[in-house]
Design goal:
single chain; 104 residues; mainly alpha
């Protein structure tokens, strides 16, 4: 516990030093490339999740299906749609990540 308090104190001292030496905006220096990368990642992820969700439409619950079976089907289809959306998004965003690492 004492080591954790010491680490917190050191991190605070470093942040205070950076603030005094380089100013407030120095904490966000270089963050523009992350913002440029993050926006299309999230936009594509939402779009592909909706696309895959519509492809894997969940059937309506009937009197013969139990609640747990229906919930399991919904969860499985949602996980599948989310996984495929994330993978498809990375196909488009990976080149931006590659360029970002080259800029650093």
């Amino acid at each position: 516990m004492q080591d954790l308090n010491k680490a917190k104190k050191e991190a605070f001292n470093i942040a205070k030093y950076v603030l005094n030496e380089q100013g407030f905006l120095s904490f966000w220096r270089g963050n523009g490339t992350n913002v440029i990368r993050y926006f299309p990642t999230q936009a594509l992820n939402f779009a592909f999740k909706d696309l895959y969700s519509s492809l894997f439409k969940t059937p309506q619950k009937t009197s013969t299906t139990t609640s747990s079976t229906h919930a399991g089907t919904v969860l499985t289809r949602s996980l599948l749609a989310g996984g495929l959306a994330g993978g498809t998004t990375e196909l488009f965003v990976y080149p931006l990540d590659f360029v970002r690492t080259r800029l650093v």
